[in-house]
Amino acid sequence: MHITEQGQGDPVIFCHGFPHTGYVWHRQLAALSAAGYRAIAPDLRGAGRTDAPAAIDDYTNRAVIGDLLALLDDIGAERAVFVGVDFGAALLWELGMRAPERVRGLVVLNNPFAPRSPKPPGYYWAKMAERHFLHMQYFQEPGVADAHLAAQPREFLSRVYYALSGDYHYLDVWQNPPGMRYIDALPQAPQFPWRWLPEAEFDILAAEFERTGFTGGLNWYRALDRNWELTAEYAHAAPVAPVYFVYGENDPDMEGFSGRDPLETMRATLPDLRAVRQVPGAGHLVQLEATEAVNAFLLHALGELTV
């Protein structure tokens, strides 16, 4: 597992999503290092310079939680504060239930906690994908999306980052019919630099996917039904660690993938939800779109968690 780290002090571990690497946290690493923390951003399984095993079962949350616990052991830490977005957020919700003794606190961006669904997620995607394009369903067949995305990595990344941002309404992608390629369902992205992403930073992210392709990240989607199977014992559980939740006003996961009232669901199910903050105008990569607001929220949370 490849990690990037900055600073010394109490450990804070950052978990990314798809299509990202640990680099999406580089602005947070700099801020936390300057504030006296040891900030660590691994490339999670299948991403960047970390190993990408072939088996789908190697991408379950249970498997990757093993990586995170091994990382804690490797740095000699009993506990850490964990920060996550997208798949990294879902990973942390499960970490908080599987290994609560290793979690000092959770800071989660955009992807709220919800109790385990009555049926596996693939059941719901198949229903939705009968009516419109849905990327989760498109990603399921091994090799198909892998080839499409690897053929145009920079084009795909620029389009999907823009579509997920607060500068576009992502659910407009659902106006496209089933059966098309994701890259064709996404909007044309504006030229760089963007307001929140300079071309030099995009180049660093794109270079990793040009080198590795996308199969490692796509396997996280293919493992989601397996995650559901492996969490039967947690069907009525919730993380007990202190939770701080920050989200973009225009985040598509909050709008279209998290139920009718995700904030109320969290308030009803999480025993120690300490703070909820909305960032006006931001979308899914809120830590890049609104870096100062997210860094301030993080530092406030850490100030409470590490006293």
Write up what this structure looks like:
There is one protein chain. This protein is of the alpha/beta class and 307 residues long. The chain has a single domain (3-305), classed as Rossmann fold (3-Layer(aba) Sandwich), CATH 3.40.50.1820. The chain is 44% helix and 13% strand. The chain contains 15 helices and seven strands. A seven-stranded mixed sheet has the order 1-3-2-4-5-6-7, with helices on both faces. Strand 4 (80-85), helix 3 (87-98) and strand 5 (103-109) form a beta-alpha-beta unit. Helix 1 crosses helix 15 (291-305). It is globular, with a radius of gyration of 18 Å. The model has no long low-confidence stretch (mean pLDDT 97). This is Alpha/beta hydrolase. InterPro entries: AB_hydrolase_1, AB_hydrolase_fold, Epox_hydrolase-like. Pfam families: Abhydrolase_1. It comes from Nocardia speluncae. Residues 11-289 form the AB hydrolase-1 domain.
Tell me the overall shape. globular
Structural class: alpha/beta
| Strand residue content | 5-15%
Number of strands: 7
Low-confidence stretches: none
Distance between the termini: 30 Å
CATH class: Alpha Beta
Order of helices and strands: EEHEHEHEHHHHHHHHEHHEHH
Radius of gyration: 18 Å
The portion of residues assigned to helices is 40-55%
CATH superfamily: Alpha/Beta hydrolase fold, catalytic domain
The biggest beta sheet reads:
7 strands, mixed
Q: Quaternary state, please?
A: single chain
Q: What number is the mean pLDDT?
A: 97
- The assigned CATH architecture is 3-Layer(aba) Sandwich
Protein name: Alpha/beta hydrolase
Domain AB hydrolase-1: 11-289
GO molecular function, one term: hydrolase activity
Keywords: Hydrolase
